Every structure is written in structure tokens, then in C-alpha cells.
Amino acid sequence: QVQLIESGGGSVQAGGSLRLSCAASGRTIRNYAMGWFRQAPGLDREFVGAMSWSGGSTYYADSVKGRFAISRDNAKNTVYLQMNSLKPEDTAVYYCAAAPSLTTTRGWYQYWGQGTQVTVSS
Questions:
Q1: Interatomic CA distance for residues 40 and 38, integer angstroms
Q2: What was the pLDDT predicted at 2?
């Protein structure tokens, strides 16, 4: 089984940037589509974005299009979420996850990280 560990979370002012990392162990992420989700207090865990195993296809939630970008380094078995122009409403615990193919449905993701907190102040 693959294990995922997020890092890079923290506090930042609105308009700032942050890059999250998701390191995988156990199996190579080359065989998985990788997704990012987030969950704020009182809200459901929502889809943020995902990238196919080849990196040739991506999909982002409307709320983050143009601001967030996913990349992956298969040699390092790591996927990244670059977050720019951050807003207070981006505050949440962010999770990375692995799925057999590109999907926005969280139930299809097989493996999940423990999450990392991102706090954006106004």
C-alpha cells in the first residue's frame, strides 16, 4: 500500500503564496492519479485539483483555477500544490490522495495523507 505525507502548511497573509508537498512511500506515484482536497471546519471535504498519472491531464475546482497549480516529480515520488494569491477562504486542512485514474470524486481515492493546516489571514 502507498503512504502519503503532506507538508508545507502554515500561516500566510492574504495574497501570499505557499507550496504544499506530498511525499509517497510504499509504491511509486507513477501508477496513480494524484489529487488534492481540503476541509474547513463545518464543511465537507472538497475537491481542489488533480493530475493524471502521466501529468498530461489536470482538473481544478472553479474556486482555485488560475491560482493553484499541481506538479509532480516521479523521481522523488512527490506531488506538489503551488498556491498563489491566497484568500482567507482558502483556510483549511489540505489532503493529498491517490486514485486509479483522474477523478473529482473523493470516494474513488484509495490512499490519503494525514493533512496539513493552511491558514490565510486577511
A1: 7
A2: 87
b/e map of 109-120 (b: 16 or more CB within 10 Å)? Answer: bebbbebbebeb
Sequence-distant (≥ 6) Cβ neighbours of residue 67 within 8 angstroms = 83, 84, 85, 86
Task: Summarize pLDDT for 98-122 with one digit per residue, the tens.
Answer: 999 999 999 999 999 999 999 999 9
Report how far residue 31's alpha carbon sits from residue 100's, in angstroms, rounded to the nearest whole number: 8
The candidate with the shortest Cα–Cα distance to 122, out of 94, 83, 85, 87, is: 87
Q: Which tens digits make up the pLDDT trace of 24-73?
A: 998 788 889 999 999 999 999 999 999 998 878 999 999 999 999 999 88
Short-list 114, 93, 6, 85, CA closest to 42: 93
d(CA 120, CA 28): 32
The cell for 89 is 477562504
Q: What is the separation of C-alpha 7 from the centre of its chain, rounded to a whole number of angstroms?
A: 11
CA pair distance 31, 79, nearest whole angstrom: 13
